[in-house]
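[RESIDUES AND BACKBONE]
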Amino acid sequence: MLQSFISHSTIDRSFLQETLFPIFSENNITPWYATQDIIAADEWESKILQGLRNSQWFFVVLSPNSVQSKWVKAEVSWAFEHREGLIIPILYQPCNVDELHLRLRDIQYVDFTENIVHARKKFQDAVRNITEREESKSNNEVKPRTLRSPINKSHISKKFIEYPPVGRYEGYKNELAAIMQVLDDANTITINIWGMGGSGKSTIAAKVASQVTSFEDGVIWLEVGDGENQKLSPVEVAISILRRLKVRIDNHASDSEIISMYRNEVANISILIVLDGVHDDNTITILMPISNSRLL
């Protein structure tokens, strides 16, 4: 049976037992977690580290309690070093995830803080996909490659589309219609939405992401900056997108190799990449997709 590590604060244990464990059980996944507080470094080495090494996937329950836990921080750091691309964050309660690890912000969350029914369904889908992926791996051995592993398109599913909530939105109808029409044009590569801060650019983009249906492999939404500055370089954006696509990246890959990997992967799928907060035109030039994908 497949084993997955559950990093969490013991204060949040009831959430695991009541909400997560039944779904793991339904999908033949054994959750591994510390059954008591770990108080000594040698205990962490002998028990927690063994559990981490024996687990194929890593789940972390995010809450104000867990972001303050030194053990959760240590476990998350280990996971980013040894289980990159196999990490699933679960937002149990609102908290500052940057306190755990800055790269957590680049991974899609299962958010239980708002719509619990929707979150439960999303978590069920994610766990089911893990089971299917591991079964596929056992049935079809793939020879390891130095820089990347091929995309399994069954895991770029539209049920994992993530974008900011837009609610009721009545403005810019003509602009929305125009963008939707241009996206279907085979000659379109990128679409830029320009405007002053607070003018609704992100909301328009989120509305497009929520309505578009012409990309069979879904939508990737990535915040690369805020109203004043771009926080991610083109290479960092490419890395974030490759991680969303479950592509392994060699730690020694050069910037040019990473961009080349990005272009190759995007060329083989049909996906809409939405970059929010771009300030550097060079980002658009470097990340300009080809084939059936688009950049918004």
Summary: The first strand starts at residue 2 and ends at 7.
